[in-house]
Amino acid sequence: MPSRRLLCVATAVFSFACLGQTPPPVKQTARAESKQQAKLTPEQERGLRLLKAAESGAAGLEPDMRAFVLWRVGHAYTKVDAKKAFSVAKDSFIASEAIDDPTDTNQCGPTGSAGDIKSWVQERVLAEMVRTERISEAEELLPSATTHVQTQIITQLVQYYIGKKDFNHALTFLSQLADASEYPFGAAADLLSNLGPERSGDRMTIFNQALNNFEQHGASEGFTTDDIGTFIEKTWTHVPPELALEGIDKVLEKTKSEESHSHYSMSSEKGSIALKSPYELRLFQLLPVLQELDKDKADSLLRDDAEMQAQLKKYPSGMASLTSNGGLSSYGVSDDVTPSTVAASANQQIAQQVMHRTIEVIQEAGKDPAQALSDALGLPLQGQGPMHQSPRVNALMEIAKGEAKQKPAIAKSALDEIVKVGDQLTPQEIAGTSSMPKIYLDLGDEEAAKRAIKVLVKAAEKLYARDTDSDDPNKAFKGTWPSADLWTKCVQAAAKISPALAEEIIAEISDPDIAAAQRVAFATSLLGASGESMIVSDCRKNWAGFTMSTESP
């Protein structure tokens, strides 16, 4: 059986922000509520009717789709009725409890991953409660959440209390996760770093707790902002040198002793690097720290490793050299080196070179839009891999977005160039142009916007055929399918032109579950609710890919 590959296409690091930044509670009288309702526009009234119908219709859906639709309904209410939004969101959490727990590892990843819609809904409901300081309500529901969600929300509570400078409560919650298999190294690092010198004992307690958890459970073989290596990078100056050295020794010893066949490639605006094992990954990450603490030991580790010497000469701060100024732009993990993985690595290097050139063209647009447009046309039309987008189209889209106000003629030319090659693009590549209708509308060309929507609808239909392919179907929850996401973009774009056009698109969707979700998307657009980040999942026999998509208001 061919080795399974995990393709992660990330454009940003996502976190639950705004903890502790909560507006004061608003108490409305019946008269005030009536006044608020009277101010609703006809479009908003229509949106509310759609939401009420969707909420009622959710009862007839399967548990996963019921929880998903109710969660989206709750989000849509946030613009006009915060109390109702909270109530429906709570209903979506309760509905999620009826969803079967996923197996430890399935086709879309382990419990709590992007393929676990139960945890996805629960985490977002509880996270919003924490964000809006409904702490008691969150704690009431927390025991009913999956283990993964409990860990994530307790982590957010740690961060919440750090933001409040209530370090004692933060320590209490962190201690609850001392033995958790998903220890929050990132939150622990933040707490330790915020404690003053007078709390050196607590600093050492946290450092030892993190180190003990790593020894007990290990850590992800990959690089994240929430792992033991990053924890040490952030905290070593806040603890005694001998304790930091002990931590580095244990991490390097453990990763060196464990059998692993993982290889890593990563790149950013600063450059790219390939590492052949978890040990090499941690060595590259921690050697700059070790050089500060014990130069002789660092030199001895490097003495017989010419390749690592060269890497650190190029990137003297290790991982920090790559992740400064915005973090990694791409990151990949593969298994043992075989002819196929060598080819894949070579393809990835080519893709990274193209990506760097694409970024240069996009940045050039800020100085010389006309030249950037010309250079964009020289980029490759097709991207690499099943989840990648067209470099040329990506650059043209960014130029169109950036110049719509200042240089409308340039923006329109960029969009027109995309239209010219539309028949050469895959449905996935066309999906990357989902903001074309909005830009055309901003440029005052409604007819072009309608034509763009039609192209996108056809691409959504093709993606749906691929999602339901009997030979290799998409095993992810259908509410997160690429086809569902693109239909959402089409419906929301159409709603800005004509409600009738949006309804026509929904009526032609053959899948009743996806159609139900699109009615909520339509209502959200009518109500003007802010866009919501949504996972897009594509899980096949031998690979799985995930991206994040933000809906338009």
Description:
- With 553 residues, this protein is mostly helical.
- It has a domain at 5-24 and 63-332.
- Helix content is 59%, strand content 7%.
- The protein contains 26 helices and 8 strands.
- The chain has helices at 30-38, 42-57, 63-77, 82-96, 117-131, 135-141, 147-163, 167-175, 185-194, 200-217, 228-235, 241-257, 278-293, 295-303, 306-314, 319-323, 339-364, 369-376, 391-403, 408-420, 427-431, 436-442, 446-467, 482-495, 499-507, 512-527, and strands at residues 5-8, 105-106, 109-110, 263-268, 271-275, 330-334, 533-539, 543-550.
- A 3-stranded mixed beta sheet has the order 1-8-7, with no helix packed on it.
- A hairpin with a 2-residue loop joins strand 2 (105-106) and strand 3 (109-110).
- The longest helix is centred in the middle third of the chain and has 26 residues, at 339-364.
Give a short synopsis of this structure.
By secondary structure, this protein is mainly α. 59% of the residues lie in helices and 7% in strands. The chain has a domain at 5-24 and 63-332.
